[in-house]
Amino acid sequence: MNLEKIKSDIEAAVPGCRLQIILNGSPSGQHSLLLGREHAVEIARFLRDDPELRLDYCSNVTGVDWLDSETSEKVKVKKLVDGVEQEVEEVRKTRTPGYLEAVYHLYSMEKKHGPLVLRLRPENRTDHVTLPSLTPVWRSAEFQEREIFDLYGIIFEGHPDLRRILMWDEFEDHPMRKDYVEPNDYEYEPTPHDAVLEKSKQARAIEGQR
Amino acid sequence: MLGEGIAKGLVETARNFIGSYFSKNRLTTVQYPEERLPQIEATRDFPFLVYDGDDWQAGMRCVGCQICEKECPPKCIYIEKSKDKKPDAVGKLQFYPAVFNIDVSVCMSCQICVEVCPFEAIKMDTEFELSTDNRFGGLLWDKARLSKPNAYYGKVHPTDAAASDALLAEEKAKVEAKAKAAGETKTNSELTSPPLATSGATSKQ
Amino acid sequence: MEMIAPAAQELIPNNAAATGDDALLEISLGPHHPSTHGVFRMDVVLDGERVVKLKPVFGYLHRNHEKIAEGASYLASMPYTDRLDYIGSLTNNWAYALAVEKLAGIQIPERAEYIRVITAELTRLQNHASTIGFLTQEMGASGSPLMYSFREREKILDLFESLTGSRMMCNYMRFGGCRVDLPAGWLDQTRKVVADFPGFLDEFERLLEGNEILLARTQGVGVLSRELAIQAGVTGPILRASGVNYDIRKVDRYGIYDRFDFRVPLGEHGDVYDRYMVRMLEMRESLKILEQALRDIPSGPIMDTKTKIRGFRPKAGEAYGRIESPKGELGFFLISDGSPNPYRYRVRPPSLINLTVLEDMCLGSNVSDTIVIFGTIDIVLGEVDR
C-alpha cells in the first residue's frame, strides 16, 4: 500500500483535512498517517467505503503516552567572532511537549491488504483530551476505545458506551500513563527484595505504633 | 427416526466404557500418589543451585554476579554478594553469594535465570511435592535449601547435565592451560598468588 | 450503513413500563460460574426467559500485563505471554516473537520455522479439542465428550512438556528462533500423535453427529451475520463460521505457511453449529499441515546467531505483528525507543474483541442458549483482562 497515494486520495475526497505521514525507523516499515481531529470520522468512513481501499476491518486500537521530552542536538551556526565570520557549534535544545495518541491498525478483509496505521492526537495530555470516536465506523473499536479511555484517559466523543472496562468504575487515575504513580496500598508481606523489604519494614513499624 | 443420532452416540460411549477394561489407551487415569507417571526429562519447576564436590559451600558454582536477579521477570531472586572470594567451578577466584534467596511463591518457573546464567550455576529442579503450611517462611528458600549436588542434576536432567559438564570441563582446561602458560613465563613468587577474577560478571555497583 | 452498539439503542421494550418494572428481571450471570470460563460476568436483563439486554463485565483478572511489560526487558515479557491465553501459550510466544522480529528485522533459521509451525498447529489442535469439549459440556452433555477431548489433549501436552519443560506455560520461542532443539525421538512421538488424532475426530463425530439434542441446541442459535462479523472485527473460527474467508495464515503467510497445502473451512449460517463444525474441520486441516511439516522438517540451527537474548535493544521504531492464534487474530504492537525495555507494548487479544458481538448474538435467545453462544466465542479470561 502506497501511503503517498492514500494521502492524496484522502485529500481529494475530504477537502481541508490535515494529514501528515509519520515515518517509522524500524525495519518493519509500517509508516503511519497522522489525521487531524476535525475530519477523522469522515476520513475513516472514506477509508472504509472507498472501493479501492475497502479497509473494512479495524484490527487494533491502542493508546500511547508520550511524555514531555527534551532533545539536544549540535548545530553548526555561522557567527561573527571578533569581527570574523566563523562556524561555531552550538547545542540547541528542542522541547517537545508530551501528547497522547490513539493508534488504529486497519486491514481489509475484502481486498486482503493492510495494515494502514492511523494516528490521532488530542490537543494535550492534561485537559484537552478528547478525540472523535471511530466506533460508529468500525464496531471493533468499541471495547478498545473504552480500554484507552480507561487506561489512558482519552475521551472519545461519539462513543456509544464510554465506561471503564478493565478497572473498576470508582477508580480514578489512568494506570497506563507513563507518569502514573501507584497508590501506596501495600499489604504486609515479607519478601526478600530491596524495595518490598523497605516497604515491609515500614508497614511493620506502622503496625508496631498502633 | 428421532433418537437415532443419540443412540449412535451412546454406542460410542459404550465402546469406550467396555474398551477401558481392555485398552490402556482408553483408561488413562493414574492413581496418584500410589502410581506415578514416568518423569519427563525436560520437566521444570523451581530453580536450584548446583555445587561440585561434597561441600555445598566450597563447591558452590554461583559467583553472585546478580544477572539472574536482574533478568528474573517476577523478581523472585534476591542476592547479596560476598566480601571475600573463593575458587569457582573452573578454578578462578570469584565472589560467592553471601545471601541467595528465591521466593518460590513468586517464582513462575520460566527458566530465564537458567538461560542467562553464564556459570552453569542455576538449574531447574523437577521436585513438585512442595506444599507447606506456611506461605511466608516455608516458601522463601535460602541458599542452603537451594543447593544440590551436580550428581543430582545429572540424575534429573541427564542430557542437559552432560552438555553442561562438557562445557565446564572445556572452560576449566582453558583456565588451567592459561595458568600453566603464565606459570612458565613467570618463575618468581607471583606463581603462588591467585589469578585475578576476569569473568564477565558485572557487579551491581 | 452504520452499526451502532446496542447500548445506544433503546433495548428495553416500551411495554416494560406498562407491565411494571418487575416484569423485567435483571440478573448477574457469573462471575463465579463454571460456564463463564473464569471470572467473567454478564449483566443480563430478562423478559421472562428471553434476553433483552446483556452487558459483559470483566477485568477481574486484570493485572496490567502491558504496564508490566513496559517495565521489563524484551526477554522478560516472553514468559508473561504464556499467561495470556493459557490454553495456547505457544501461539502467544510466536506472536510476540514475530512482532519483535519485525521490529528488529530478524530472520530466523529454517528449522526454527518448522518447529514453530508444528508447535502452533499442535496448540490449535488441543485448543479446538478442549473448546468443543467445553461447549458440549455447557450444552449438558456432561462428562463423556469433555473427557474424550481432554484425553487427546493430554497427549499433546505431554509432547509440549518433553519439548519445552512445561505443559501449559511453555515459554519456548525466542526472538531469533526457539529455545532448545527437539529432544531425541520427539518427532516420532509427534508423528504417532498426529497419526492417531483423526481416530479421535472420527470417534467424536460418531458420538455427536446427528445427535438430535445437539442439532436442536445449536442450529439457528446465536446467528452472527457476515456484515456484523467484519464490522465488529471478529476473527478466528467465529468469523469463518459466518462465511468470511479470512485466515491470517493465508493472508499474511507469516512464517512458512505458504509452503503448506491446506484449506480454510467456512461456515454458511454463522450459528453455533457452524462454529462448532468449523473448529472440527480446522482440526483436520491442522493435521494436514502437521503431516507436511513433520515430513519436510530440515536439520540445522534453531537460533539466529546474531540475535542477542540478554541486553537486546532494537533501534527506535514500531511494529505490529499478528498471527492466527486458535482464537483469532493475536497481535502485538511494539514501540521501541532504543532502550532495553519496550516503550509501548500492546496485546491485541482476540478473545476481548470477539466479545464485542456477544450481546448482538444473545439478544432474544434464552438464558441456556446464552451460555452456549458464549461458549462458542471461546474466550480465555487471562487474555481478555490482561
Offer a quick outline of the entry:
The complex is a heterotrimer of chains A (210), B (205) and C (386). Chain A has 210 residues and is of the alpha/beta class. Helices cover 23% and strands 30% of the residues of chain A.
Structure write-up:
The complex is a heterotrimer of chains A (210), B (205) and C (386). In chain A, 23% of the residues lie in helices and 30% in strands. Chain A has 210 residues and is an alpha/beta fold. Chain A has two domains: 143 residues, NADH:ubiquinone oxidoreductase Nqo5 subunit (Beta Polymerase, domain 2), CATH 3.30.460.80; 25 residues, no CATH class. In chain A, the strands form three sheets. In chain A, strands 1-2-7-6-3 form a five-stranded mixed beta sheet, with helices on one face. In chain A, strand 6 and strand 7 form a beta hairpin. Chain B is of the alpha+beta class and 205 residues long. Chain B has a domain of 139 residues: Alpha-Beta Plaits (2-Layer Sandwich), CATH 3.30.70.3270. Chain B is built from seven helices and eight strands. In chain B, strand 3 and strand 4 form a beta hairpin. Chain B is elongated, with a radius of gyration of 25 Å. In chain B, 29% of the residues are buried. The C terminus of chain B is likely disordered. Chain C has 386 residues and is an alpha+beta fold. Chain C has a single domain, classed as Orthogonal Bundle (Cytochrome-c3 Hydrogenase, chain B), CATH 1.10.645. Chain C has 16 helices and ten strands. In chain C, the strands form four sheets. In chain C, strands 1-4-5 form a three-stranded antiparallel beta sheet. The radius of gyration of chain C is 21 Å and the shape is globular. The two termini of chain C are 33 Å apart. In chain C, 55% of the residues are buried. The N terminus of chain C is likely disordered. The chains are: A alpha/beta (210), B alpha+beta (205), C alpha+beta (386). Chains in contact: A-B, A-C, B-C. The interface between A and C is large, with 38 and 50 residues.
